[in-house]
Amino acid sequence: MRLELEKRAQHSSLMTVISPLIAIVLTLLFGAILFSLLGINPGKALYLYFIDPLTELWSLEELVVKATPLILIACGLCICYLSNTWNIGAEGQFTVGAITGSILPVMFYDLEGPYILPLMILMGALGGMAYAAIPALLKNRFGANEILTSLMLVYVAGLALDWLVRGPWRDPDGYNFPESRLFSDSAVLPALADGRMHWGAVFAVVAVVVLGVLLAGTLKGFEIKVIGSAPRAGRFAGFSQKRMVLFAFCISGALAGIAGISEVAGSIGQLRPVISPGYGFTAIIVAFLGRLNPIGTLLAGLLLALSYLGGEAAQVSLGISDKTTRVFQGVLLFFVLACDTLILYRIKLVRNSVAQVVSGGTNGQS
Amino acid sequence: MRKILGIAAAALALGLGASASLAADKLKIGFIYVGPVGDHGWTYQHNEGRLAIEKKFGDKVETSFVENVSEGPDAERAIERLAREGHDLIFTTSFGFMNPTIKVAKKFPKVKFEHATGYKRAKNVSTYSSRFYEGRYVLGEIAGKMSKTNTIGYIASFPIPEVVRGINAFMLGAQSVNPDMKVKVIWVNSWFDPGKEADAAKALIDQGADIITQHTDSPAPLQVAEERGVYAFGQASDMIKFAPKAQLTAIIDNWNDYYVARTKAVLDGNWASEDVWGGFKDDMVDMAAYTNLPEDVAAAAKDTAAKIESGELHPFKGPIFKQDGTQVIGEGESLDDGTLLGMNWYVKGIDGQLPQ
Amino acid sequence: MASLDVIQAIILTLITASTPLLIAAVGELVAERAGVLNLGVEGMMIVGAVSGFAATLQTGNPYIGILAAILAGVLLSILFGFLTLSLVTNQVATGLSLTLLGLGLAGMLGSSFVGTPGVKLQKLDIPFLSDIPFIGPILFGQDILVYVSFALVALVAYVLFRTRIGLIVRAVGENHTSAHALGYSVIRVRYLAVMFGGGCAGLAGGYLSLAYTSLWVEDMTAGRGWIALALVVFSSWLPGRLLLGAYLFGAVGILQIHVQAAGWPIPSQFLSSLPYLATIVVLVVISRNRAVARTNTPACLGQPFVPDR
Q1: Chain C touched by A40 (CB under 8 Å)
Q2: Residues in CB range of C62: below 8 A, 6 or more apart
Q3: Is the CB of B22 inside 8 Å of chain A's CB atoms?
């Protein structure tokens, strides 16, 4: 008995809507079994995972806070991956953006005024962009594979941040503990509501819209997709692969940099040795989960943020360990990814190569 | 259906906060951990403290924890969640949780917070930390007597005052019995990477160290010492199981008594914001059994520990000189807590340069 | 400081540090040669580490532990294969999710083993030969997995470039449509390649908990799976160059530790970042011969394949 896939003549628009629902149902089923096996009330656990974070204004805001950097970074990564440029160093660009964006509030801490924040964001974006340009230039100039260089630069950026906050940028009144001084009020991103939701969320939405329009309705968007899917055709059309590599890296680096400085100026309020729980890597999942589409990354980012918040709630209320949450998260992602297959393919269960359709796609024959 | 409604109602009640909570008569105590409970080091010992509370107070308390909380943006949310879900006492067990703890404490004036190793307090925020350096002084003294090569290997995590203080205390202890002692320090830039810690231990032994001590969390360096036939000291917990022939003693982080005492204070209604920096005297630092040592060395170590406990001996008693020879304090004085808290210089006799 | 003893010690330590990277990377190299990018190496490694540790503890025999570690890696890789090959899910996202799953799973499985000393895989110490000064301990005094790692590299290099099987694997990775047209089962070849990769990743994890150290703590792989992935790219999919990359990375890492122990006044963060910087620099130098990189990159890497009948 084996699985066989049959390509649909066109995208199933029905499945585009239904597949995430099937994924959710399957995840709920799996979760119910998993938690029952662990001796935990499955109804309660699943409620905590998926509904509880949505029942309060506070946790809705926290959901946005958690999703903001993921969406910002993932949006930029969409451009990279669509154009076949393999930036997996967004975590490093995030870190460098946070560092360069923090130059003003750390070194010129007594400055005040409304111009500081825009400058910080700009410097963060430029920092992330410059750092992302390194693998792009190494690829264009020397042919060095960008997967390796961008990943290695992640570790270097982390150590650079570590050196700064333990050394020159250490808070002089902080008993030599490794953190920078707290940012002054004019260097903190204003909140949007009562809680911690800050202007970073607005940047994320703007990024989604701008990149959505860029991809769907401009020549540049067309160029990105052509170079990604048919490089030879792109060359005939006169598109430069090298320029595209640099462009994709710069855009994604800038967005990661903005995410970095927004996180530091919005959620944390100072520079610390650890400023990201791996956002740059999680964003890669978000980008693909969102089908490399900016609107999709918005939804995927929120879904992933929900699973983190839900996992935390389950940990506190039911004592479900962090490990179980990671397993559950992994399985949730598997189901979502697998169900996406239904959009492009019909799945058949074939018995002993006799083409006997046991279960087809739900929309039967076409 | 009724079940689902019931769950929804219960969850709603939880959401409304402590007053409406079903478990209102139980004291709810929350913990925020920076690492996994299974790190067998820092977080593991704090979790032991949590279990001690449960054991001591049984039905009167209910504890919960969030592990692997990144010291970045996630910390504030995790702490606030505990506060919102009706926890009356919250322990935040890493330095990086300091500012988030203070922020959340402002929003929840009725909840009591305990922050480990920080320096910012508030009416409802206590700080607590442990004078591990007392134990390290004793380790240094033992090392000074046991080393044949006069060289100690020190595996360090990050150059923060806590770690620097430990290195200095160790060196002063060693110098008190053996003025020619040398300490080689390797910074692995991680609290927690068994492979790298083992590599560092090997490198130190290869460069002539015959006693290994560490300020990182895993038992890997002790296993290396055991294999190579040199001595070592356990860290955070008694690691004798990992190195029955190599471990001389270990510094044990003991949070149990403190956690139980603070819980009792809340139950009795007399909790107040304090700054506790406890050592041998308060049982926050314990020494594991002295093993693999000649009797006189073990006896001397016990004696030194007792003197530190009684206050007769201060590990940082003068005269103390910095690496470059400048005198910090003279005879008859000892360093004050403020200087200790922010220590960022090596004492005389340590070769390497402190990363700045 | 550069006495012969210290040099020997450095070499011995760097072999231990490089071996897990090499084993994990050579497995991933095969998977990628067949056109499958599995970013779940870290997850498979950590599950291998806990499985190997647990099985060794139960049986007292580290060799059974090694088998358990391999088996665990293979099982996870079959799950990955089912998703990416049978259900054509996106390989990048699936691999990253596999890492998440693996880290969680390992933590769950291992929670009862924290704080328990394990059984160490002993070195082989070949009689007489290992007594030869200097090179004896280096060449003849290692644990079995070190020899296995070299054998794996040689085997993979031989099979990939000198046998029909290797030709098929490379054909599948280079152009799956043609390979399919020629009558090869692309999916089956890829399944086997992915399982080989998984087994190697599991074995590399087992090396960490059985030979590198003999203990289990959560997250003990500490990012080595990612380094292994990067090394495959570094090698431009050539096994020989992979050997160079893994040992270069290990060597710079160990040297920086020795430099610190010798007391050089350089910020430790800078020294810690040296292995990463050195890898970039060497990659740039060897990439200047672009023909090598281009001809070796499997053209179908990461591309989904659905046979049409």
Answers
A1: no
A2: C52, C56, C119, C120, C121, C122, C210
A3: no
DSSP 8-state secondary structure symbol assigned to residue C162? H
Inform me whether the C-beta atom of residue C211 falls under 8 Å from chain B C-beta atoms: no
Q: What is the pLDDT of residue B1?
A: 37
Whether residue B11 and residue A43 make contact (CB cut-off 8 A), yes or no, is no
* Amino acid C115: pLDDT: 81
Chain C hits for B36, CB-CB cut-off 8 Å, are 107, 218-219
Query: In B, residues 63-122, which contact A (CB 8 Å cutoff)?
Result: 64-68, 70-74, 76-78, 80-82, 84-85, 95-96, 99, 119
**Which residues are CB-contacts of A14 (< 8 A; sequence separation ≥ 6)?**
A362, A363
Question: Who contacts A255 (Cβ-Cβ below 8 Å, separation ≥6)?
Answer: A72, A73, A75, A76, A125, A128, A207
Min Cα separation C223/chain B (Å)? 10
Strand partners, A328: none
A23, A24, A300, A364 from A18: Cα distances, Å: 9, 10, 16, 14
Of C189, C195, C207, which is closest to residue C76 (Cα–Cα)?
C195
Chains A & B: contacts with CB separation below 8 Å = 113
**B294 touches C at CB < 8 Å:** no
| Rounded Cα distance, A164 and A161, in Å | 5
Enumerate residue ranges in chain B where pLDDT < 70: 1-24, 355-356
- Interface contact flag, A176 B344, Cβ < 8 Å: yes
DSSP B281-293: TTTSEEEPPP-SS
pLDDT in tens, B125-167: 999 999 999 999 999 999 999 999 999 999 999 888 889 999 9
Max Cα-Cα span within chain C: 68
Within a 10 A sphere around the Cβ of A115, how many other Cβ atoms? 11
B residues 296-355 lying closer than 8 A (beta carbon) to C? 351-353, 355
Mean pLDDT of A7-20: 80
Task: Kindly indicate the confidence band of residue A239, based on its pLDDT and cuts at 50, 70 and 90.
Answer: confident
Instruction: Work out the percent of chain A whose per-residue pLDDT is above 70.
Output: 95
CB nearest B70 (choices: A48, A162, A277): A277
Tokens, residue C26: 């050579």
Instruction: Please provide residue C258's backbone torsions phi and psi, each rounded to the nearest 5 degrees.
Output: -65, -35
Number of Cβ pairs < 8 A linking chain B and chain C: 126
Hey, are the CB atoms on B74 and A277 less than 8 Å from each other? yes
Q: Which residues neighbour C141 within 8 Å (Cβ) at sequence distance 6 or greater?
A: C123, C124, C125, C126, C130
Which of B66, B99, B343 lies closest to A312 in CB terms?
B66
Please report all neighbours of B, defined by 3+ CB atom pairs within 8 A. Answer: A, C
Q: Which two tokens stand for residue C243?
A: 């050997």
| Residues forming beta bridges with residue B129, ordered by sequence position | B277
Pairing verdict, β B247-253 and A2-7: unpaired
Tell me, yes or no, if B38 comes closer than 8 A to chain C by beta carbon: yes
Query: What would the pLDDT profile of C5-54 be if each residue is shown by its tens digit?
Result: 888 888 999 999 999 999 999 999 999 999 999 999 999 999 999 999 99
The residue to which tokens 């990992």 are assigned: B242
| Distance (Å, whole) CA A217 – CA A235 | 21
- Average pLDDT of chain A is 89
Distance CA A15, CA A11 (A): 8
Q: Cβ–Cβ contacts within 10 Å for residue A163, how many?
A: 23
Provide the token pair at A85: 């440029």
If DSSP codes are grouped into helix, strand and coil, which group holds residue B119? Answer: coil
Average pLDDT of every residue of chain C: 91
The pTM for the full model equals: 0.91
pLDDT at C290: 64
**pLDDT tier for residue A352 given thresholds of 50, 70 and 90:** low
Among B3, B70, B85, the residue with its CB nearest the CB of A43 is B3
Residue A342 host element (H or E): helix A322-344
Q: What is the pLDDT of residue A80?
A: 95
